Amino acid sequence: MAAKTILNLHQLVRAALDSAVRSGLLPDNPAASVRPPDPRKRPSPHRRASSWTASELGTFLESSASDQHWMLFRLAAATGMRRGELLGLRWSDVHLDSGRVEATQAFNAVGYATSFSRLKTKTSRRCVSLDSETVEYLRAWRTEQAQALKAAGRTNKLGLVFTGTDGGLLHPHLASQAFARAHRNLAVTPIRLHDLRHTHASLLLRDRVPIKVVSERLGHSNPAFTMTTYQHVLPGMQDDAARAFAAILAPNAPRRDPIGAGSDPVEGRVAQQ
User: How far apart are CA 123 and CA 82, in angstroms?
Assistant: First the structure.
């Protein structure tokens, strides 16, 4: 198992056994002394994020404009929000006037069973700024959704941004399957719905957006985790940084002949002595 999977399982078991200790069923928690591996120090070899280039993303968004889930795909790409966060997003958490959405809960599936859960950490509960075009798309989507449900004699009882055709919950597995169908016949790299999150982060990092800002948008616990996840993007950023430094220094750089040009530097030093 990957270190992150082991860590998640350990947290679950430890919490369950803590509850047993509080209830008097156990004298102590045997999982408390166990130290799970740190995913940052032992990243999974299979954990490299897959993503699209800007060209591939543009091709997909243009092609999927008529898909019934087009707004879900667009918002996933524009914010880097997780699938569960998007499917749990309520209209009351969408602030079109200020161009922001609040991630406060998630709608997830374990097997085929689904449940809502409140995002637990301060970093995962966050506001994500939207670009102006996505804001206008959301305005149009709200009207389109309301009209479609009214025509079908349905209501959006939970006030969710993304629902099934009956106004009820959109199952996470169905959302992922819809995404797979939407790009199956396109000349783009096959990726998962979750990889739109990786695409969002990778494109921002390649455009030199500070890693702390990207980390905050993704709801990561700290920028170090973001760096570990997207380390495949960093070498190119390092090259860009080196070129940027050279360009900044060029107008004021001191001029000197390189070693080997003209007189021999060793002989020159001997002569001076």
Answer: 13
Domain 54-229 sits in which CATH superfamily?
Intergrase catalytic core (1.10.443.10)
> Tens digit of pLDDT for each residue in 221-257?
889 889 888 887 777 777 777 888 888 888 876 766 6
* HEC secondary structure over 64-78: HHHCCCHHHHHHHHH
Residue 102 bridge partners (DSSP): 127
Is residue 99 within 8 A of residue 132, CB to CB? The reply is yes
Enter the DSSP assignment of 253.
P
Decide if 211 contacts 234 (C-beta within 8 A). Answer: no
Q: Are the beta carbons of 118 and 100 closer than 8 angstroms?
A: no
Q: Which two tokens stand for residue 25?
A: 């069923």
CA-derived radius of gyration, the chain: 25
Tell me how many degrees the CA angle 28-30-34 measures, rounded to the nearest 5. 135
Q: Are 171 and 163 in contact (CB under 8 A)?
A: no
Q: Where are the domains of the chain?
A: 54-229
Task: Classify the C-alpha dihedral 193-197-198-200 as positive or negative.
Answer: positive
- Using CB atoms within 10 Å of the CB of residue 260, give its burial: 0 to 12 exposed, 13 to 18 middle, 19+ buried: exposed
Are the C-beta atoms of 17 and 26 separated by less than 8 Å?
A: yes
Q: pLDDT at residue 178 above 70?
A: yes
pLDDT tens column, 45-94: 555 568 999 999 999 999 999 999 999 999 999 999 999 999 999 999 99
How far does Cα 235 stand from its chain's mean position? 19
Q: Is 126 exposed, middle or buried, given 0-12, 13-18 or 19+ CB atoms closer than 10 A?
A: buried
Three-state secondary-structure class, residue 226: helix
Between the alpha carbon of residue 80 and those of residues 23, 72, 112, 203, the distances in Å are 40, 11, 24, 11
